[in-house]
């Protein structure tokens, strides 16, 4: 199927995430309605996939509220056919069993699955801000100085059992090269079937730096360890657009969105996720590539279809 869609790239927007806090940008969507509006705008801008975290609508604190997931997914489905990729990362420190609950609840077409543990650090960001809109924000960031994002082999196995029962495709998040070995083991063990979909996540403190050399190394290593696969790239902050562009050049896709980067260009805050989607699509078209429609994205990734979700 990829042969006939070889000039198509999957454009993902991670619309809110669990990293940035409300103080950092007035444009960060928090409430269910804000997230619904952002996802619909991403679709209208040409996005293929919306990656979804949810937050407390009163304080903006990331959580894993199943009712909010369901509310957003149900309303979005009424208006468009965008692929929803639900997070199983949750907020930092979320109990493992709560993180995967959304796959059982929504039975989505696509959901993230982190392929290994790492030191996921945000504490260094807090010094850039003098005041906070909410009391939880500074403490949330400070805790990450002593935080390990746990994704053990047991977690991967148990998560993938739930994914398989729901016929939900995992988007395997790769923060460092050792996680490629973890995915190769999961394939060999029969936990996950090929072809797999990898997302190389670069530029997080505790993970692999966002450099062209590292991305080439990751893609090459994965080819040797896994064989054929689809892949996308997301990168933190100012590396978002350069690394997404390089992914296009290497035959991959790209993720943008306010989860990873609050800016549209140097010193200019993005007013919406759709602005970033429009920019990465302009870049793709300069390279004679086109954004995949959601239906084309389903074919590329081999997804079960919107008629088989539980929302």
- Structural domains: how many: 1
Give a count of the beta strands, DSSP E runs of length 2 or more.
16
Which residues sit in consecutive blocks of at least 5 with pLDDT less than 50? none
What class do helices, strands and sheet pairing give? alpha/beta
CATH fold-level name? TIM Barrel
* Mean pLDDT, all residues: 96
Oligomeric nature of the chains: single chain
How would you spell out the order of helices and strands? EEHEEEHEHHEEHEHEHEHEHEEEHEH
Relative helix content: 25-40%
- Distance between the first and last residues' Cα: 27 Å
For the record, the CATH class is: Alpha Beta
Order of strands in the sheet with most strands = 2-3-6-7-10-11-12-13
Number of helices: 11
Overview of this structure, please?
The protein has eleven helices and 16 strands. It has 311 residues and is of the alpha/beta class. It has one domain (3-122, 148-308): Aldolase class I (TIM Barrel), CATH 3.20.20.70. An eight-stranded parallel β-barrel has the order 2-3-6-7-10-11-12-13, surrounded by seven helices. Strands 1-16 form a two-stranded parallel ribbon. Strands 4-5 form a two-stranded antiparallel sheet. A hairpin with a 2-residue loop joins strand 14 and strand 15.
